[in-house]
């Protein structure tokens, strides 16, 4: 059983905090029928009674086409020249020939544009504490990867199948205390179980700023040096998992920390891309 790697702003060394264990997850599963009777499930996207994510909300997701997305930042329609990051990929560019940028992040793949109902779903999980969404979000990521491997193998081939381990972008210590869990650890653990790829709890995040309140410049500044690698990743091919890509500053900073620790190759997979 892994332990949480988070760090307080004041501390000079990482402070480890316990993850939710097998026993706790088992008890939660046993309690679900009673909770369902007291408060029936509603869709996280539209709040109608029924599945946690209803078919109508799934149909409304604006999926990103991996054949035409920007391979560097995950934005839709950035296959030739990305208007988000200015990346001139070119029609003949393959995944193997894409050089890592200054952050050492090689490829970025995102499931959908961050538009309704996806923001509601992310908030319900991240801030509303609806932890039952973790396996559903993980399944979205796995479906995204499989679709990309099938439809654009020259661009995204091996993005999950070829990795040595998954690594998630961790929450700050303040966010962990507020929520009571690390939301991306939960998703990454489920994705690890679905895909068979090992999970390495490799990163800690210093500081306590909420990136959602910052503009582009603020995000860039806040993310610089924010992450530290606390597990061995030398020579490993890693897939970095996050929820929402806004400017890409978080992913680049996390990837830089992994590269500085000796990771050989780093790709990223996210649920949503802000456009």
Task: Summarize the structure in short.
The chain is 35% helix and 16% strand. It is α/β, with parallel strands linked by helices.
Describe the structure.
This protein is an alpha/beta fold and 275 residues long. The protein is built from nine helices and eight strands. It has helices spanning 22-38, 55-60, 118-126, 133-151, 153-156, 173-179, 183-195, 216-223, 249-260, and strands at residues 3-6, 15-18, 107-113, 165-168, 203-205, 227-229, 237-245, 265-273. The chain has a four-stranded parallel beta sheet with strand order 3-8-7-4, sandwiched between helices. The chain has a two-stranded antiparallel ribbon with strand order 1-2. Strands 5-6 form a two-stranded antiparallel ribbon. Strand 7 (237-245), helix 9 and strand 8 form a beta-alpha-beta unit. It is globular and about 50 Å long.
| Amount of beta strand | 15-25%
Unreliably modeled segments: 1-20, 90-101, 214-221
Q: What gap, in angstroms, lies between the N and C termini?
A: 37 Å
Gyration radius, in Å: 18 Å
| Overall spatial form | globular
- Let me know the average pLDDT: 82
How many beta-strand elements? 8
SS element count, helices: 9
Secondary-structure-derived class: alpha/beta
Main β-sheet, spatial strand arrangement: 3-8-7-4
Q: Estimate percent helicity.
A: 25-40%
Order of helices and strands: EEHHEHHHEHHEHEEHE
Question: What characterizes the major β-sheet?
Answer: 4 strands, parallel
Write the layout of secondary structure elements.
Layout: E1 3-6, E2 15-18, H1 22-38, H2 55-60, E3 107-113, H3 118-126, H4 133-151, H5 153-156, E4 165-168, H6 173-179, H7 183-195, E5 203-205, H8 216-223, E6 227-229, E7 237-245, H9 249-260, E8 265-273
Parallel strand pairs: 3-8, 4-7, 7-8
Antiparallel strand pairs: 1-2, 5-6
Helix pairs in contact: 4-7
